[in-house]
Amino acid sequence: MLGARNFYHLGAYEDLLAAPIPKVGEVREWLTHQVRHSLLHGVSSVPPERHSKRIALVPEGFENMEAEGIVAADHAVISRAQRPYQRT
């Protein structure tokens, strides 16, 4: 994620404080791209009831949508793996 730092490669605390902070628009653009092209909508294996109590209300039917998204992603990965490698 934009602005994230790997602490193993950080020399000193001052380096962290001096690191550039991404602009709001850059973060929004990065997150929008992730949601549209990379991320699967899900609750990270947390039961929907617990997620609804602790974080945000999960809408009716979310579990089915989550499962369909995971299956579609698996199919896409398998389908892509079966195609010959193409360098981009």
Summary, kept brief:
The chain has 88 residues and is mostly helical. It is built from four helices and no strands.
Write the layout of secondary structure elements.
Layout: H1 13-18, H2 24-37, H3 48-54, H4 62-82
Would you kindly provide a written description of the structure presented here, covering whatever features stand out?
The longest helix has 21 residues, at 62-82. The model has no long low-confidence stretch (mean pLDDT 81). The protein is mostly helical. It has four helices and no strands.
Low-confidence stretches: none
SSE order: HHHH
**What about the largest sheet?**
none
Q: How far apart, in Å, are the first and last alpha carbons?
A: 23 Å
Silhouette? extended
Write down the oligomeric state. single chain
Q: Compute the average pLDDT.
A: 81
Instruction: Indicate the radius of gyration in whole angstroms.
Output: 18 Å
Strand residue percentage: under 5%
- Given helix and strand content, the structural type is mainly alpha
What is the overall number of helices? 4
| Helix content bin | 40-55%
The counted number of beta strands is: 0
